[in-house]
Amino acid sequence: MRPFMHGSHQTTDRRSASRSPGYAAAVFLCCLILAVCLPACQLIPQDMNPGLSLPTGEPESPDPDPTDAVPVVIDSPLHVTEVMTANRTTLPSLDGSYPDWIELHNASSQPIDLKGYRLSDRLNNPERWIFPDIRLEAGDYLIVFASGLPQAEAAARQADGEVHASFRLSSSGEPLLLTDPAGQVLFYQEIPALPDDQSFGRRDQDTAASDPGLYLPQPSPGRANGTDGYRSLSEIPVPRYDLLINEYVSRSLGPLDSDGDDSDWVEIFNHGDTAVPLGGFALSDRPENPQRWVFPELIIEPDTMIVIWLSGKIKSIDPDDPSTWHASFALGSEDRELLL
To answer: What does pTM read for this prediction?
Structure first.
């Protein structure tokens, strides 16, 4: 077959002899289009055309990152026993702030030198924070504040007896990892999303590396957690207390506080037959912030009333001196609610 030559094409089909040169140009254009488009069409099975790779309609799965694989955990007497990722009122640090915290427990009969151990919230970076020179005595607990403080400031806090890690925790949930200086994993747990002041950890009887974490009914930083734990927040029983707001006064013209001021006040009555520890209870005039002022370690005896001054004064509270019992807010003229 002779190649196509514009203006000199010969054919035995007489009908084509009378066609104009524009016909030949159209044929040329069609051939050009086919030459461009045909390579994009899969005319033979893909496995017979190794140079052609077409999408299959399903996204490719990324190769798994081996550093994110679930680590193998070994049994150890050093336990992470409790974690709080939304510390709002439970445990203040020395400067009065409320960083999140991690509790460790030495369950052995020998002290453990923690220097070189590591804590991290990233599986692909187990050395995110390395313990300084700390000795954890047999049976003792240690609180590590996950405050994100830089090393120099953390060292100054350690001199005051407080340990701060260089990362923070997320209340929406994340992994937590404890490794020894040799890189062996002593603790790994996916910490779930936690509401404010709710802790997650191990019961006292849970000592194996495989024991699951549980929601704890009461935070207990620095001490034993007890024997109760729950797999979901909805299982935690809500305690009932025989406490009433018996009376409150705004814009008081009555009794004066110890400074001689006519501060607002609230009277709380325990009408039950058992004493109630008030530590962790709270007062507020704002429903959106129910823990505006948190009680210190006071105890209200059965059939007893106590008065808290709503003065807005910041005072050092002495449990044995009621004149020092001042909340850090005062009632406003527009306040319509008081919460206990």
So the answer is: 0.60
Rg (CA), the chain: 36
The mean pLDDT of 190-194, rounded to a whole number, is: 94
pLDDT confidence of residue 253 = 64
Tell me the per-residue pLDDT of 38-84, one tens digit each, with 9 for 90 and over: 444 444 444 444 443 444 444 444 444 545 678 899 999 999 999 99
Q: Do 281 and 294 form a contact (C-beta atoms < 8 A)?
A: yes
SS3 16: helix
CA distance 216 to 207: 16
- Structure-token match 């190649």, residue found: 3
Q: Which fold has domain 70-235?
A: Immunoglobulin-like (2.60.40)
Cα 214 from Cα 196, distance rounded (Å)? 16
CA distance 84 to 201: 9
Whether residue 52 contacts residue 46, with contact meaning beta carbons closer than 8 Å, is answered with: yes
Nearest by Cα to 177 from 191, 163, 196: 191
Helix (H) or strand (E) holding 120: strand 118-120
Cα 97 to Cα 42: distance, rounded to the nearest angstrom: 66
Alpha helices in 114-198 (DSSP H): 151-159
Q: Where are the domains of the chain?
A: 1-61, 70-235, 243-324
- Token pair for residue 150? 């830089």
Residue 7 has pLDDT above 70, yes or no: no
